[in-house]
Specification:
Number of domains: 1
Shape: rod-shaped
Order of helices and strands: HEEE
Distance between the termini: 113 Å
Number of helices: 1
Mean pLDDT: 84
Number of strands: 3
Strand content: 15-25%
Structural class: alpha+beta
Largest sheet: 3 strands, antiparallel
C-alpha cells in the first residue's frame, strides 16, 4: 500500500508540473499578444500624427502663397523680412508669421517679363510640403 501511495504522489506531482508549465506557456502567449497589440496601436498613432503633420505643412504652404500674393498686391513688406512677396525668407525667426504648429518660407523669383514665381514651403513636424505659384499680369 505504501508503494501505491508513493506512485500516486509521484503522478500528482507530475500532473501539477504539467499544469504549471501549461499556465506559464499561456501567460507567455498572452503577454506576447498584448505587446503586439500595443505596438500596433503605437504604430497607428504615429501614422496618424504623420498624416496630420502633412496636412498642416500643406495648409502652411497655402497660407504662405496667400500672404505673398497679398504683399505683392499691396506692394508692402508686411512680414518685415526685407522683401516684398517673400515670406520668412531672411533666416530671422523673430519676424516669421505665427502659424499654429507649422512654419512657412516663401521665395520669389522673377521670370521673363512680368512673370513672378512664388515657391512656398510649409513645415510641420517631420513633414514638408511645397507649392509653386506662377503669377503673371496681363
Amino acid at each position: 500500500m505504501r508503494h501505491e501511495n508513493q506512485h500516486d504522489l509521484h503522478n500528482t506531482r507530475r500532473s501539477r508540473g504539467a499544469v504549471i508549465a501549461a499556465v506559464v506557456v499561456l501567460l507567455l502567449a498572452a503577454n506576447i499578444a498584448i505587446i503586439g497589440f500595443a505596438l500596433t496601436v503605437t504604430s497607428d498613432q504615429s501614422i496618424a500624427v504623420d498624416r496630420l503633420d502633412t496636412v498642416r505643412a500643406f495648409y502652411a504652404a497655402e497660407a504662405g502663397v496667400s500672404m505673398a500674393v497679398r504683399e505683392l498686391m499691396l506692394s508692402e513688406d508686411e512680414d518685415g523680412d526685407g522683401s516684398i512677396g517673400s515670406i520668412s525668407d531672411d533666416g530671422n525667426p523673430d519676424n516669421n508669421p505665427t502659424l499654429p504648429q507649422a512654419s512657412v518660407v516663401v521665395t520669389v523669383s522673377t521670370g521673363g517679363g512680368s512673370d513672378v514665381t512664388l515657391t512656398s514651403t510649409g513645415s510641420a513636424g517631420q513633414s514638408r510640403r511645397s507649392l509653386e505659384a506662377l503669377l503673371s499680369s496681363s
